[in-house]
Amino acid sequence: MAKRWKRIAAAAVAAALAVGCAGGKSSGPGDQNGGKILTITLDGAQGRQAELQAVAGYLKQIGVDAQVRVWEYNTLVEEAKAGSRDAYATDWGSSTFSPFDLAIPKLKTGDRGNYSHYSSAELDELFDLASTSVDEGEAKNAYFRAQEIIYQDAPWIFGYYRDTIEANSVKVKNWKPAVDGRINLHKVSLEGGDTLVVGLRADRILSLDPANYRDRETETVIRNMFDGLVTRTPEGEVKPELAESWETPDALTYVFHLRKGVTFHNGEPLTADDVVFTFNRILAPDGINGQPSPRQGLLGPLSSVEKVDDYTVKMNLSSPSPVFLQLLVHTQIIPEEYYNQVGFEGFSANPVGAGPFRFAGGSLDTEISLERYDDYWDGAPPLKKVVFRMMPEPASRIAALKAGEVHIIQEVAPDSTQLLEEDPNVQVQVAEGTRLYMIELNTQRISDPRVRQALNYAVNWDEILQELYGGYAHRVSTAMLPSGFGYHDGLTPYPYDPDKARELLKEAGYAVK
Amino acid sequence: MASLWQFLKRMIRRQPLSFVGLLVVLAYLLAAIFAPWLAPAAPDEIALSERLRPPLGFEGALPHRPLGTDMLGQDILSRLLYGARISIAVGTGTVAISLTVGTVLGTLAGYYRGWLDQVLSRIADLLMAFPYLLFAILMMGILGPGLLNLTLALTFKAWVEFFRVARGETLSEAQKEYVEAARACGAAPWRILVRHILPNIAHTLAVIATLRLGYMIIMEASLSFLGLGVPSNMPAWGSMVATGRDYLLDAWWVSTVPGLAILLLVVSINVLGEGLRDLLDPRLRSG
Amino acid sequence: MRWVAIARRLLTALPLAAGIVLVTFFLLRLMPGDPVDIAMGAAGNVTQEEIDSLRQSLGLDRPVWDQAGVFLYGLVRGDLGESIRSRTPVTELLKQALPATLELSFAAVLLSVLIALPVGVMSAVRPRSLWDRVVMSGAFLGISMPPFWLGLVLMTIFSVMLGWLPTSGRLDAGVTVPTITGFLLLDTLLTGRWAEFGQAVRHLILPALTLGAELTAILSRVVRSSMLEVMGMDYIRTARAKGLAEWKVVLRHALRNALIPSVTILGLQFGVLMGGNMIVETIFSWPGLGRLVVDAIFARDYPVVQGAVLLYAITFLLINLLVDVLYTWLSPRIDL
Questions:
Q1: Å from B221 to nearest chain C CA?
Q2: What was the ipTM of the complex prediction?
C-alpha cells in the first residue's frame, strides 16, 4: 500500500517536471529572419544575480536567448579561466589609481586577471610602454590609445564602479570616507565621548602584522596603528607621512628623508634601520615565518633598499614605475629591535607601530581595540579609544548605528540610504570607489567583435544602475576608472541603442527580434 | 484503488490533521506542476519601476502582485510557484534515491552480515560523523552546480539513515521463524528478501521517508541560501531568502514570505508523516 | 562501569576521526579553485610569479599523495598547519573558535531542556487538553522551521525593530573579558564581572533559540510521550495507591524514567546541532567553528577546513560515547 503511494508520488513529480519544463512563461527568444539565434549564459555569484537578470531581460528584447546562472564565485572564476563559460559577472579592485593594477592585468595577453582570454599585440605594446615610461604625457597618450582599442574590441560588456557608501553618527566630527576605503581616525573626534566604535563589514581581520595580509579591512585597522613612508589624502593624493621629503635622482632610484623625533609605541625611535628592515622582510622569500610576504607584489619593481644614514633611505628599482609612490602607501614600518626581540608570533600578538593609536587588545574575529598614542609625531589624536568591530551582517550594522552602538559603519547598501537619511542622528557619506564591476565575455567563444559591441548597445545600463544602486553606481567607458591615471574623458560609455544592437547582430548573421 | 480510498477514509477519521497536511502537500505539488498557468507573471520578468512593493494589505501594494515584489520588481508569488519545483524535485529526488540505495544496501548488509556488513557499516559511521551541511557544501564544491548534482550531494549522506533502519529491521526480521522456514524450504535468498522481508519493513521505511522529506527540503533551502543551490534563473526559495537579507529593515517580506512557504510545506509534510506513522505502524508511535 | 569497553570505543574513534579528515582532505583538493589565488584577492597588484612562489612554499604544487603524507605526519605530531590566508596556525584559530561554538551549543541545549522539560511534563499530565494541542503544534513548527529563516526573523523582530537584544557578536562593542576558559559565561563569573555576564547572556539568547528550536520541539515530544508511557505503568499506580502526592509521583518516579530516551535523543541531535551552527553563526556573526569553516571552504583555505572537520568529528564521537555512558548509568540493565 505504501509502495503504491510512492509510485504514484514519483509519477506525479515526474509529470510535474515534464509538463513544467515544457510549459513555462519565460519570454521567448526571437525567430525572425532565418539566422541562428544567439544563445548566451550569463554567470555570476549571488550578489550580481539581480543585475544579470536585468541584463538578460534587455538581451531577450532584441532576440538573444540569455539565461542566468548563479555560482559560487571562486568556482565560477575557475570555470571562466578554463574557457568553458560565455559571459561572467566579475569585479577587480585597484589600489594604485592607475591602469597598472586594473586594465593591464585584466586585458594584457595571458595576464593573471585576463578571464576574457582577450589578446591584442598592439594593446600589449601600449601597456608596456605606458607602464614603464617616466614621461607622463607619453604614458597618457599610450593609455588613451589603449582605451580606444578596448572600446572597439569590446571584450566585455563594460560596467561600472560603485560609490563607497558609509554612514556615521552625527556626533562624529571631522571624518569622511576615503576613496581607497580606509577609515583614518587620527584627527576624528566624538562629541560627548572619547571611545569610537567602527562597524566593519569583514567577519575577521587577517592579521595585525603589516606584512601578512591582503585585504582592505585589515589595512584599515593596521593603518591606524602603523604609519608608512607616505600616505594618501581621502581624495587619493599621495602625501608625506614618515618620510618628510624625497627625490628621484634617476628613474630607478628614490631617496627618502625620514622625519626626526618619531617614536614607536614602545618608545623606540624610528630610524632608517627600521625602514630597511621592514622592506627587506617583505622582499625576502622567507620573511614571514619562513614564507614570502603576501604583500611582495605591492612593492612593484623594488629590488633593494639601502640605508644611507640614520634618517635617509635609498630605494633601487629594477624598472621605472610611475606608480611607485602610490604603491608605497600600502607598506607600513615596523620596529626592528622589538620584532627581533619578540619574534613573528610575539609581534602578531602584540604589535607595535608608529601610528596614532596603539594596540589595546581584542581578537581577530570579534573586535580589535586601540588606544591613543600620546607621543604620536603628528599630535595625539582626540579620541582616547577606538574599537573596530566585525559585523558582516548588513542589517545588524545599520541597526547598531541607529541604536548608537557603533559610530561609523562601512558598506551601506544603496537601498538602505533612505532609511538612514531620514534619521536625524545619522549621516550618510559617499566616496568614489576603486573597484570595477563588469561582465566579461569569453572572446574565444564570442569571437565576433560586432556581436560583443551589440551586447554593449543592447543593455540600458543607466536604468539598471539607477534602480539597483540608486545612483550610487557610475558607468565607465572601458576598463579604467575615472579616478585613475590616464582615463580617457573623451570616450563616452556605449549608449543604450537596441536598434544598433539588432543591426550589428544581423550583420554578424544572427536572428533578431 | 479501493484500498487507497479506504485508507483515506481511515485517515480522515483517525488523523484529520494529517489529512489536512496531505491536502496542503498536494496543493503545493499541483502549484508546482501548474505554475506556468497559475503564476501572474514570469518569474524572471523584471519591472524596475515596481520594486520592493509589499504584499496585499500593506500600504503601497499592487493588486496584481499579491505577495509583493522583490528588488528587481519580480513577482514574489510567481517566483514562489516556480521555486516549488526545485524544492520538491530536489527533496523527492533525494529521498527517492537515498531510500532505494539505503534499503538495498541495508537489507543486504542485514541479511548476509559478514564483511559486507562490516565495510558498509564503517562507511556509514564515517559519513554520520560529518555535519550534514559541511559535507553537502564540499560535495557541491566538487560536483559543481546543477539540479542533479545538488540531489547527489544531499543523497551522499542521506542514504545512511535508510541504510541503518533497513539493516536493523532486516536483522530482526531475519531471526523470525517464517524466514527460517523459507530458508529451510530451499528458497533463494533474493526471494526471501524481496517477497518476505521487504514488505514487512516497507512501512517503517515509508514513514521515515516522509519524515526525511521535510528535512531535505530545508537542506536544499539552506544550500541555496548560502549561494550553493541550483544555478538557474529558476528561483530557489532559499536564495530568495538570502537576497532579501539586505532589505530586512525596509522590505522584510522579500525574505519572510519565501521562508513562510518553506515552513508551511515542511510542516504539512511532517504532520502527514506523523499521521502515516500512526496509521501504518503503531509500533513506532512515540507520541 | 565497563572501562575496557569505553577504552575500546575511544580507540576505534581515533582512526575513524582520522578517516574523516582524510576524506575531507581529498574532497577539498577535488574542488575547483586555487587557494593561493583566492588568498591574494581579486586585485591587480599581484604577479603570477608571486602566486607561484607562494604556492611552492606552501607545498601546494606537490602531488596530492605527497601533501597527504605531509599532513598526516604533522597530524601525528599535533601540527595542523597554517591558514593559507592569514598564516596563523590552525590550532590557534580552532582554539579561539571552539569555545564560542561549544558555548552556543550548550546554551541551545540548556534552553531546549529548560523549555522542553516543563512543557513536555505538563502536556503529559494533561493529555488531549488545549495546552497539549498547542504544545504539539508548536513542536511541529519547531521541527519544520528552516533555521536560517528563523534566525533572520528573530533578529528582525527583536534586534532591528524592537532593539531589545543585540544583533551580533558575543559581547557589546569595546568590551573585553580576560580569557580563562574561553567560555564567556564562566570567565565573567570567575572574574566577578557581573555586567559583562549579563551582556554575554543577552548576546546568547537569539542564536541559542534559533539553534535549539528543532531540539526543543523534538525533546518536548519525547518527554511527553515517554512520560505518558511511564505514567500508565504499574509502579506508578502503586505509588499513587500508597497515597503519595501527585507531584511527587510525577517528578520523582515518572520523570526519572522519561529521561532515558531524552538523553539518547539529545546525543543524537547534538550532531545536528553541530551541523546547524554554521548557518546560525553566519547570521549572528558568532565567532565560532561554523563560521570559520564556511568561510574557509569558500576561500579554499584547506588547512583550516581540515582542522575544523577533525574537531567536529572528534567532538561528535566523544559526545556519542558520553551519551552511551550516561545511558548505561541511568538504566543499568543495558550494557555498553
A1: 8
A2: 0.79
